[in-house]
Amino acid sequence: MSVFLISAISIATVLLFGCVGEIITEKAGHLNLGIPGIMCMGTAGGCLGVSLYMGALSSPENASWILLVLISILFSVVFAAALGAVYALLTVTLRCNQNITGLAITIFGGGATNFIMSFVDRTHFDPAGKLISTPLPFADSLGVFGQVVLGHGVFVYLAIAIAIACAIVLNKTRVGLHLRAVGESPATADAAGINVTAYKYVAILSGSAIAGLGGFYYIMDYIKGSWENASTIEGFGWLAIALVIFVLWKPNFGILGAFLFGACYIVAFVISGITSTQKEIIKMLPYVITIVVLVITSARKNRENQPPASLGLPYFREDR
Amino acid sequence: MEKQTVIELRNITKRFGASVIANNNVSMDVKRGEILSVLGENGCGKTTLMNMLAGIYYPDEGKIIINGEEASIRSPKDAFRYNIGMIHQHFKLVDVFTAAENIVLGTGEGEKYDLKSAKTRILAMSEKYGFHIDLDKKVHEMSVSEKQTVEIIKVLYRGADVLILDEPTAVLTPQEITRLFDVLRAMREDGKSVLIITHKLNEVMEISDRVAVLRKGEHIATVNTADTTEKELADMMVGQKVTLNIDRPLPVDPELRLSVESLTLIGTEGKPVLDGISFGAYGGEILGIAGIAGSGQRELLESIAGLHHLESGTVTYFNPKKDKPITFYHKSYERVMELAHEGMLRYADGRDFTGKDEYGKSLSKKTVKALVNAGEIFFKEDEVINLREKTPLQIRELGVRFSFVPEDRLGMGLVGNMDITDNMMLRSYRRGKSVFVDRKAPEELANEIIASLQVVTPDTHTPVRRLSGGNVQKVLVGREIAAGPKVLMAAYPVRGLDINSSYTIYNLLTEQKKSGVAVVFVGEDLDVLLALCDRIMVIAGGKVMGTVDARTAKKEEIGLMMTGAAPAES
Fold first, then answer.
1. Which pLDDT tens digit goes with each residue over A172-223?
2. ipTM of the complex as predicted
3. What is the pLDDT of residues A112-148, one digit of tens each?
4. Are the CB atoms for B316 and B258 separated by under 8 Å?
5. CB within 8 Å of B129: residues ≥ 6 apart
6. Residues A201, A316: Cα–Cα separation, whole Å
């Protein structure tokens, strides 16, 4: 049971990073379908950072936990945000169609990641992965509770902290009010003197940076540095976008939603004695739930739990 | 005591493109503690002028002087710096935010974000001016009047001393208007200047201290409300009659084609958009419809075309079939028998065709078919059809055609990215039995229209979007005329066209009238309506104010009716 919970929390962490990143972007009125590609890019960046740092050391044993974590986060964030910047340039400044741009970014991100990972030195991934996933202190001494709640690497807690911070910023601060106004009605925000373009860029870039950490966490912490190709991470990216709808664009709901999605994802691997067909059916559950949520929210016609009103629409000031 | 001048406009000119002059050399002033009405017809430039104060547009020429100093207002933010705030017709509010969130949006940069103390300040302000507002209510749950209140408070919260309201009463009920006016008076007492853009004379008289009248982009006069009358203002608004040389033959044998009886349509706001409209359109004449924009013209034509679900009323179409043989082209055997029972049909020699033989026995389907196909059965009268039972497609097929030129010109009727031929096909793609559409006939039609209306285009394969406005309209109107309509409804067909293109369209409509078509023309320019039409129906606020003879009617009389004043007795 504890294995199941630990795995579910790990998958949930991957999804939570992606989900919170996408929520921030969507709150600015941009549906970023490039998130799967951006998560891949964050992975590639983080892994590159790990290999550069580990490679520079005389021996892997000398690696410092704090330096390794900081360097990998920095690289991951910069790479993911760079790809996010491409998306932002295309959709905000050049006003390209967001869906098409997003899909192109995803396809590009997956390919670029496979390319980068093909020359990254992966010899030190195994020790680095172990170091990054170092659990909190006391995890071993507190039995099942310690294992399940405290037995994760720092990224799990980082994800939860970011989600909570986002919820607070969005709902309790002026910046959040302005960001939501930009996503709901950019013309109104503009007339109120809010710099719409700046808000959009910042939201897209920070959203991308956060999402990128999800991919890196999966590779370096959850599967301890083994690498095959980008497609698994892309899959998580799509699931994260579905999760945004499921949690009704609320980052704090995202924590629970991500756990539920993670559990659905992992349960298929944990239950023994079921056929592969049944496994695939269970893995479909998150998507089915998302569709059900969409049907329910649109049928209720509740204006509160809808996507931002200007989601997907480019904004021209001259259009007024 | 002379009131202090807050804003002076000096020789303001604003052009859009090379040819459109929205404001020409306008000079006027605004005083502290007054309510000033800016009065004028549609397109007279009153909103443009005010938008220059609000920072939406920037004047091409002239100066704006605020409190004695020359001001440069380049954005709404600049306008707020000069304490000017504008409440637009389309509210700029975030639907899912509460009133308070909307009001504080974009303010207080650098201060602590504290909605609670902001609310206290807003409530104090509401108290002062007599607003009724629930600050925690979400905007999407609000009525139009509440939203307007939020907009006004939003502007006051930003410290505006000059408030500009664009047609504030257009969407309000009479009680709400009374309440709004009370609030505006309270603001005036507080030393604020209130500018109201309007075309409603009675409200001008009721609320304002002074009236600035604009006509065709020019400032005609600013007068004290107390020294003027509605009649005088209406005269200033519409100006002298301009004689246009449009060929207008007298209608020949007008026959009732379309009869509309007490048509009522409820709009999305729950208020009637059309309120008991009745009129008849006759073949061989042009019926003009005059009214301030948004009085229900568009909805009226759309209702006739079958595009709205009507609350009540009838739309009857008299299909010109008298003395014409009935065919199976649009009629089934059942319909023929129905018409026979109604006594609508006769034999070629004049005997009634009742669908029965001399012994009172119903004729067999085979016999009837043979008779009809041989052209032996004729209509005795025009066929009477209730259009409310028909689909928009059926209505079109019956010959009731509708062309509407919206403000952006491409919004309705044409697909911008498709070429002229393809746009012709939008009306013909259902013809023929083949799975492939017939491209030849539309291509010919396209060439015909290009030639006859002198459409300027490289070829028939140029996307309509790339044609100039006038040419787009020629394509749109030309297509509907080419279908050989019996009733042709054209709304704003000359919107934005130059003189020559306009005349081409006028002549087209007159041609149609001469060939017996009932033409319904919705126009903006009263001079054109008076020169082109045979009768003019004036509507205001979804009601018919009266119908006048276009050959004898006075422009001022129509102008007064358009503003909702009592219909003229003639």
1. 999 999 999 999 999 889 888 889 999 999 999 999 999 999 999 999 888 8
2. 0.85
3. 999 999 999 888 888 888 888 888 777 777 777 777 8
4. yes
5. B156, B183, B186, B187, B190
6. 15
Give the residue from B558, B552, B551, B517 showing the smallest Cα distance to B537. B558
CB within 8 Å of B332: residues ≥ 6 apart: none
Structural domains of chain B in order of their starting residue, each with its CATH number: 5-238 (3.40.50.300), 240-318+387-399+484-570 (3.40.50.300), 333-381 (no CATH), 416-483 (no CATH)
pTM (predicted TM-score): 0.76
- For residue A240, the model assigns a pLDDT of 94
C-beta atoms of A309 and B96 within 8 A = yes
What are the pLDDT digits (tens) for B334-380?
777 777 777 777 877 777 777 777 777 777 778 777 777 777 777 77
Query: Can you give A189-215 as a three-state secondary structure string?
Result: HHHCCCCHHHHHHHHHHHHHHHHHHHH
- Which residue(s) pair with B286 in the sheet? B519
> How crowded is the C-beta side of A195, counted as CA atoms within 13 Å?
7
Partner A, chain B 265-304, Cβ-Cβ below 8 Å: none
Contact B276, B263 (CB under 8 A): yes
Q: Is there a contact between B105 and A181 if contact means CB atoms under 8 Å apart?
A: yes
> What is the band of B331 on the pLDDT scale with cuts at 50, 70, 90?
low
For A2-309, give the CATH class: mainly alpha
Query: What is the rounded average pLDDT of the residues B45-54?
Result: 88
Contact A193 B94 (CB under 8 A): no
Q: Where are the domains of chain A?
A: 2-309
- Distances in Å between the Cα of B213 and the Cα atoms of A221, B196, B465, B541 are 74, 12, 37, 22
Token output for B342 = 């109604």
Q: Which residue of A has its CA nearest to B95?
A: A184
Q: Are B97 and A181 an interchain contact pair (Cβ–Cβ within 8 Å)?
A: yes
